[in-house]
């Protein structure tokens, strides 16, 4: 989306927050020439993993800590993030803050998840959830004055699993929600398994819905 709407011209300074082990980082450096890359994640241990994904000669620095309290020097031409904003409850405040760190004409590119994320778990009353699920159509109201929403996208996909335990293992292993099974008694887990099967079981297996959302905004 960044390349489609912004174009593939070189980027001066780019900030990626919540870079994790660098899936989006790699996609960015593969598609764009970035003179100076500031990388951030809450978890400092991500640094060696993300740095290992960079091509030789890529200028980059890593800053550990929550993006809400990050204070990298200067302003950016592109601020990007994948699968992080669902953990940040106040998107209006986040975008205002990010906008202040953008050069005029600079871009913000974010992905997160919509209201139907893990719809099956929500319907079963599971606490496996994040505070910031937001549909594509709701991002316009989050964009501060001085920025224009350029594009959004929302795509639901379903994964299928043979058992409820496999669903829970998937959640734990992806780190999407480490609490999904936390502290459950045997009886509670059994009831959850029965309800999941009864309400959502299909010939393909048990579905788990991912509701991915992307947004792209530009500072005027
Ligand atoms: C689902 S992972 C996504 C990682 C990477 N962006 C990717 O697409 O592979 C979410 C990442 O966001 C980080 N994170 C969560 N809250 C954050 C915050 N407030 N500030 C910075 N990073 C945060 C987590 O540590 C984790 O690495």
UniProtKB/TrEMBL annotation:
<dbReference type="InterPro" id="IPR029063">
    <property type="entry name" value="SAM-dependent_MTases_sf"/>
</dbReference>
<dbReference type="Pfam" id="PF13489">
    <property type="entry name" value="Methyltransf_23"/>
</dbReference>
<keyword id="KW-0489">Methyltransferase</keyword>
<keyword id="KW-0808">Transferase</keyword>
<dbReference type="GO" id="GO:0032259">
    <property type="term" value="P:methylation"/>
</dbReference>
<dbReference type="GO" id="GO:0008168">
    <property type="term" value="F:methyltransferase activity"/>
</dbReference>
<protein>
    <submittedName>
        <fullName>Methyltransferase domain-containing protein</fullName>
    </submittedName>
</protein>
């Amino acid at each position: 989306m960044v390349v489609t709407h912004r174009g593939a011209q070189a980027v001066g300074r780019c900030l990626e927050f919540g870079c994790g082990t660098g899936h989006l980082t790699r996609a960015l450096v593969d598609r764009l020439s970035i003179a100076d890359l500031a990388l951030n994640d809450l978890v400092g241990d991500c640094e060696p993993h993300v740095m290992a994904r960079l091509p030789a000669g890529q200028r980059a620095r890593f800053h550990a800590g929550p993006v809400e309290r990050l204070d990298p020097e200067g302003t950016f031409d592109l601020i990007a993030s994948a699968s992080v904003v669902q953990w940040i409850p106040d998107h209006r405040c986040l975008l205002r803050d990010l906008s202040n760190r953008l050069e005029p004409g600079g871009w913000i590119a974010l992905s997160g998840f919509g209201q139907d994320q893990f719809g099956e778990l929500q319907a079963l009353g599971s606490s496996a959830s994040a505070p910031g699920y937001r549909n594509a159509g709701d991002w316009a109201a989050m964009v501060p004055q001085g920025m224009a929403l350029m594009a959004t996208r929302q795509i639901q996909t379903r994964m299928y699993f043979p058992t409820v335990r496999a669903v829970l293992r998937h959640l734990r292993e992806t780190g999407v929600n480490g609490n999904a099974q936390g502290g459950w008694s045997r009886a509670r887990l059994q009831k959850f398994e029965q309800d999941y099967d009864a309400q959502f079981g299909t010939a393909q297996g048990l579905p788990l819905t991912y509701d991915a959302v992307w947004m792209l905004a530009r500072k005027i």
